[in-house]
Every structure is written in C-alpha cells, then in structure tokens.
Amino acid sequence: MECWIKGKLDLLVCNLWVLRLYLREDLKVNLFYAGSELSLGNVSTSSLQGTVRIAQCECTEDDTCECLVPSLRLNHTYIMWLKVLVGVTPLWSPLMSVKPVDIVKPEPPLNLHLEMTEGGQLKMCWSEPALLPYPLQYQVRISAKPGHSTWQMVQVALEASLAIDNTLLDSSYLVQVRCRNHQGLGFWSDWSTPYDLSLGAEVLYFPPQILTSAGSNVSFHCIYKNKSKIVEPQEVVWWLNLAEEIPASLYTLVSDRVSKVTLFNLKATKPRGSFFYDTLYCCHQSRECHPRYAELYVVDMNINITCETDGYLTKMTCSWSANPNMLLLPGSSLQLRYYRSQIYCSEFPSPSPESEVKECHLQKNHSYECTFQPIFLLSGYTLWIEFKHFLGTLESSPACVIPADVVKPLPPSNIRAELTRNVGLLNVSWTNPVFTNSDLKFQIRYAVNREEIPWELCEVSNTPNSSAVIEVEQLCVEYVVQVRCRELDGSGYWSDWSRPAQTLVQDIRAPLQGPEFWRIVTEDPARRQKNVTLVWKPLMKNHSLCSVSRYIIKHQTPGNTSWVEYVDHGTTWSFPWTEHTHTITVLAMNSIGVSSVNFNLTLSQQMSTVDAVRSLSAYPVNSTCVIVVWTLSPQIYMITSFVIEWKNLNKEEETKWVRVPPNMSKYYIYDYFILIEKYQFSLYPVFAGGVGRARATDQFSKGGFENENNGSLSVVLPIVISTSVLLLGVLLVSHQRMKKLLWEDVPNPKNCSWAQGVNFQQPETFEHLFTKHPEATSFEPLLDADIVLEDISVAKASEKEDTQDFLGIASTFPNPQDSERDSACSTSHFNSSSSSQSSQEVQGSGGIDLKYATVVGNSRSDGLCEWKMNPRSCFDRCFLAEDSTVSGAFSSSTWEVGSGVFLVFPGSPGRQPSKTLSLISSEGFSEPSDHDDAFTDSLERSLCYLGITPLEKRENGVFLTESSEMLCQFHTGNLLTDTGVLQHTPTDVHGFIQSSLKPKAMVPYVPQFGMAAAKGKEATEKNSAVITP
User: Fold this and answer.
1) Has residue 613 got a pLDDT over 80?
2) Of 271, 516, 628, 902, most Cβ neighbours within 10 A?
3) Which domains does the chain have, with CATH numbers?
4) Cα dist from 758 to 768, 774, 953, whole Å
5) Which residue has the higher pLDDT, 801 or 486?
6) E strand residue ranges, 36-182
7) pLDDT single digits (tens) 719-764
8) How many CB atoms lie within 10 A of CB 836?
C-alpha cells in the first residue's frame, strides 16, 4: 500500500495492490484511521484517542483499490489500518503510522518561461506550485528533440530558475521540471508540461517589467529571434508604444546577441484605456515587430507633505495629495510612514527601518489628512509616502518637520475699529491670541461694507499696544475690518482672519449745502385754494458729511412773516398756498449743524402768468433717452433756471423733474420710456421773483431730431468724414509710391520737347507714335545689351570757318539749358557715367574739320587704355596722337576710353555749321534743342538718324530723313577708314571698334522703334537699324 497527500494538501490518497486471486465481487476494503500522540511502538487500537474514522476504498479491475481520506491535519500523526472482508472472513492489516506533511506529492511547477539576466545570460524560470509549508527542490530535464526518449537530468537547488547556455536557442529543445520537499521526504511531483525553447525565445526582455519613479533612468535588454535566427543587435530598433521610435543614440551593444536601450528623465505614465503602463518593443530595422513587449510603469512620487500645528499646540495635522493616476494601478496602495527623532531634524533626512505607518483619511478635495496627537514640539518628524505595487515599492523624498516651527496661531480677538472725526484715520485695535510669544506681525484688511469692494491690505509688525492707525480717503462710509497674525521670523503660518469689526458712520461737519428741491402745485376746488408739495432729492454723502438727521423747511411771506417746519423722514412736504408771494428754503441738518448754502424758491401768482417759453418739443432717441428742445419768447425778466417735468399719462406714477441751467435750449432726459405710451413734458422758466407759466406737450415730435442737430449724428458724422479722408489720403500716397516704384526708370514723354502740343487723350496719337512705317518691318532695338547709351549731344560747329565740317557726338551730361526741358527723358541710372564733355569743333591736319561721337557703356571694356593721372596723355596715345587739336578737345573730360566707342565721320559738303543736337538715350528719340535754331529750316537740312551696323557684314548703311523720308545711303565699310580715324588709330583701338559693332543680344526698351526697308524685306534684315520716333 502507498499513501500520499495531493498537492492541494486537502486529500490523502492510498493505493492498495491486491492479488488477482482475491479480487471478487464480495471483496470489501475499508481504511480505518485515528489521531494519536504516541509513537507507533507504544500505540494500540484500545489506546487511540478520539473517534476512529473509516474511509471506504474503491477497487478496480486493474488489481488496485483506492482509498481517499479528506481533511487531515498536516503536522498531526495518524494511526491507520486496513480491514479486508472476503466473503464473511475479515482480515486486518498491521497498524501503520502516518504524518501527512511527510508524504506530500506537490503539484508540478507551472508557467515555464525563459528570462534574461542583465548581462545577457538566459535562464529557465518557473512558478512554484501551491504554497507549501516547506521549501522545494527541483529537477530539470532537457531533451534534444521532441519525442526523443533521451533526457538530460539536472539537479537544482532551492531556486525556481536554471541558467542555460544561449546556444540552446539555435535548435529545438524541450524542457520539463518537477519538485518535492527539499529534505527528501514525500514524493516527486509529476513532470510539468514540456516547454519548447525555440518557440519561447522569439523575443526576450530584461527586465520584462519595471516600476520606477518619474525623473529616473531605466535600461532594457533584448534578444530578438526572427524566424529561428538570432537578429544581430545592430539591426534592432526600439519603439515606445509602437508610436515613437527611440533614437539610436540611446542604444548600446551588450553582446553579439543582446541590445540595450536606456531612457532618461522619465515622465509619469498616463493611463490609456485599460493600459496603465508604457510598452517597449524590440523590433527589426525593417519595422517588423513581435507582439511581445516590455512594460514600463512610471509613477510620480513628487509628493509634497505639509504639516500644521494648531494654535493650542496639542496636535499636528499633515496633509498630502497624490496623482489620481497612482491609485488606478491595479494592486497599488499608498501610505504615510514616519520616524520621530528625539530632538530637531537631521540635515539630510532619510527613511528609517524603524518607521511606522500613520493612518490617513481621504478628504473631499482628493487629498489625505493625518493627525499626530499628542506631539513633541521640539522633536523632528521625518515623513515620506510609500507606494506599494506587485512589482516593488517606491518612496517619495522624505521631509522632516518640527511641530514648533509650523504653528498656525489662533486669530486675534476683540477687534475694534473707528474713524476719527475730521482727520480721516481708521483706528484698529485687537487682543493677541494665547499660546504665542510677543514677537508677532499682523495683517489688517479693510473695505467699504458693500458687495464687490476689493480689500485693502496693511501690514504692521511688533506693535506693543496691539493697535494700528490707517489713513483712509472716504470718511462717510462704513468699513469692515479683519486682523490675522503669524510669527515675526516668518516661521509657521498666518492665522485665520478674525471676526469682522465694523465702523460707525459719524458726522464730520455740518452739511455743505441744502437739497435741491421743486414744487408741485395742485388745485383744491373744495377749499378754493392751491396746495404745494415740495419734493427734493436726498443729499449725497460728499455734501451731507456724512448724514442728514432732518430737513428744515423755512417759509417767508410778505410782511416779514416767517416760520419753520421739520421733516425727520422722507423727502416730500405739503402745505397750502394762500399768499400772493411765498418764498421757501429747504435746509439740511445733522449732528454737527445746519447747511450754510441753500436753495430758495419763490412762489408768485403774478409771475406764474409770465409766458417766456414759445415752443416745446420732445424727440425720442430710444427707450432710455428723450431730447427736449425749446425756444424762448422775448422777455424782460431774467431766467435763473429751467425745470423740466415729465410723467406717464397712462400710468399713475409720480412726476419726475430735473433742473436745467438757463443758457441751454435742449436737454437729454435719461429714463425708462415706453414709446408706445403717452407722456407729458412740461418746461417751467424760473425767475428770481417766481416761477413762470409752463409750456407742455403730450406727444413726441415726428421725424426725429435731424433738424435740431441730433447729438448722435454730430458725433458719428465727423468720425465717418475723418475716416474717409484718412483712407483717401492713404490710397493716394500708396498710389504715388507704387507709381514711383514701378515707373521709376520709365521716362515721362510729356516732359520731352517732342511731345509738346501732342494730345495724349486721343487714341490716334498713340497709333501715330507707335505704328510702323508702311515701308518698315519689325526690327531690334538700337542699344546693345552690354552698352548703355549715355546722354548724347551734338556740338556746334565753329562759326569762324566756312570750310567743310564734321558732325561729332560726344558722351556728356545735358547742360543746364537742355536739362530744363529734357530732364524727364533721362534716367537716374545714367548718373554713374563719365563726366560730361561738350563736343567741340576740331581742326584736323590739312584743314579738315572733325566732329566726333562716343557711345559709353556702363561696364568697362578691356583693351584700349586706362585713364591714369593724366587723361590727356592717355587720349593722345590712344586716338589721333598726331592731331593736337583733337586730343586737346578731350583733355579736360573725365573720360574712360576703355568704356566707350569712338566714331568720327565727315559732314555733308557745303553744309552750314551745325548747331547743338541733343539725343537722350533713355527716350530713344533724337531732337533739336529749343534754344537752338539749327533745324528751323528743316527743308534744307533734314535730320538723319544713324544706324550702327557691324562693319564686317555689310557695306551700306541707311539714313532716313525726317521730312522727306528719303533714304541716305553710304558705305559704312569706308566710313571710318576714309575719314582717317582707323588709319591713325592703333591696332587695339581698331579691334575694339570692330568688336563693339558686332551683333549681340538686344534688350528691348520703351518706346519701340521702326526699321526702314532699304531693298525689300531681305535688304532690311541686312541693313542697319534706323532710329525713328
């Protein structure tokens, strides 16, 4: 027979093997057992104590009988025996002694899995079976192939893990574990479920879960296996929550299989649905990730603990608040731990193993409150919060508190406050609280006793008589005053505010003036008299200073008869009017005296017939404003004021009134008006001798108040006009600036002399200016892209000689006379050109007159010569060196020979001396100057425009006269050589001229020009361009 306790420790199982010979249907087996304290050798069935129990055994056909005994105590000793009944013959077995704790057969280990250590070493881990009262020992067996009968046995000590070789991951291995009592008693458990290393090692993390506090740094290790092949750590990337890739700078290679990532300065984890942790994924660089991940729990342990000792110095209350997310973590808890030192606090407080847990209660504001009572005032209490979780325990930074340093005193008592008369000082006094020393500072707050009035704060320190004096501005108001205190050195807390104290309003002096009043006269037909009701408005506090105890009504009638009446309450008073003249004065009175400045009103029956108001109109503006306008009739009495009365005729309500200065003819009444109802407005002129006849109206005037200078219109209309003018000015300035920016380099043709008298309003004008000549075709602009034509003028020929002259064009700036008319045709970017030089008549050798022309570009050309210190010497070397007259003409100009083209050609035979001709390159037009009469006889001398063409491609140039439109042909190939220019110039100058006349890319410019056709279209394309306006 074999007996053992099952792993759940609640059932004893005994198996009995029976010979097949005895297996019969009438075979019955029973197990008897009873508890005993004696050893087996000293026990007998008669000495057994307690009840003997019987467990029936079940026999099966496989020669075994099973007996089940429930609910045995593990550490007790039981005496057992068997009774076998075969037919009618009983058989008894010998006595057996059993202690259940020594025959336990545990459950097999559970949850087999692989883990990785910090150094990258693998280990096989499992969970212990149900809790047993003793440690266990384990056996691990490993098989190379599934289903293989050969197992390698490994004896393991008390730990529930076993380090294995990392190379086992490269092939399929099965692992099983079993356990038993570490002392060797009892039975081995069954083998656990086989665990396949190749399947369990796809992704391994160390640690698989981490609990840490915010602001800390943590590291994770990973082994990644992709399709039965270990991925090299260089190919591993880390992702946080599968949403954020962790930078590669945080990776570390631990070994040829292990990758490590370190996260710095962590923030507290925010719950995401049912996830209360962050996930880290170890993935392949191809972004292929395994579903397994590591869990990161980050808890904010930055918890501030504040303590406060009550004013009676009997208890200390500490409170603290935690992040609500901390309590959402499953299996977590918070508690306050403390340790009390004998005296004061250490410089660097730290948790102590001798700490105790203090019970705290959750408050309505989600904070916790703990109370220490009794307390030791000078002892140091070190406090911290402990967070417990199944992954570990976290602690907040400890804080040390001395109860004597965190006292919140009781508020001051017996607060008194009063205002001093005529001075404006608020005197406050109080009684210091108990259980405090004399070194206290106080804060006093005071405010006018009304709603929504901000508090004024005043702080006083170390007052021996517990009082303070505060200057205030308002004297006729009631103040509310409160006081609080704290230690003078700043330790502890401010006390609560004391109970409020209120000041009493006292009169400062007699009222400054009496009330402003009016009378309402009613007829009493029964008594045949008039009754007068006086109404007045209560005095403001700045006039009453500070209160009014009663009003005095003083009456004065003819015959020096006077009397007074007193009104203690209310602002109205009535009396009969029987005399022709009755003067009334209303005075205000307080505890100091009677008002000195008062208003008088005379009631006169004679003056009541004076009609001084000609017309009265009322114009509604809206439901809160009505404008009353009136005109006056000529009168001999001087009006001292007006009084306007109004009331709603549809309702029985009191008449309202207002006093108006005498110099006004309209008044704005602000009140609540129902415009669909009927109102009556009355205007009374008030004279020194009485009140005149009223002018009344009971309807609103139609058409608004446009004809009466509506106040709203007079305010809005100037704003609209000024805004419109300002906007128009901004538009004009913007238009001029844009025009200046866009057309800065474009000349204005109206400022040119050729445009004088031309009507640019007619469309035909532009068609005439820009229409091509009937015989002309399209052409390219005159100017070379690399050469900018400067201001060009034609010098006058000398009148002393009648010999043949030459036409010369020199690069100059316009002279003052020319600039007056043609300045608009030149552009600002020409100001960087060479200094202007007027063309002069030159007498060459052999009596030949020369005139010269230059075309100067902005960019310097290389070749020729540079102008050094002496421009004359340079010019003499470069051009007409043997002709002193020509060279002298250029000696004084600021000329850069390397930047221009020099042209010389002879004038027409027999031609009169030429006058000055000005050509402005920016306009593209050539015209005679106004101060010159050289071209008045245009029929005799037609103006021709020179076309510049390359010398090497054509021989003929074309001139087109302005008046006769005839074509002037000449041989351009001999133009310079025949005149002797190229004959007398150095080789480099000659080459420069040749290169300058070569065709280059053209830049079009406004206005455009036409080309005259010489010999049809083909001839035109080969001939030079002619400038025509």
Assistant:
1) yes
2) 902
3) 2-102 (2.60.40.10), 108-200 (2.60.40.10), 201-299 (2.60.40.10), 302-401 (2.60.40.10), 413-502 (2.60.40.10), 508-604 (2.60.40.10), 606-702 (2.60.40.10)
4) 11, 22, 40
5) 486
6) 53-59, 64-70, 78-86, 89-92, 96-98, 110-116, 122-127, 136-143, 152-156, 161-164, 174-181
7) 888 888 888 888 888 888 777 766 555 556 656 665 666 666 665 5
8) 16
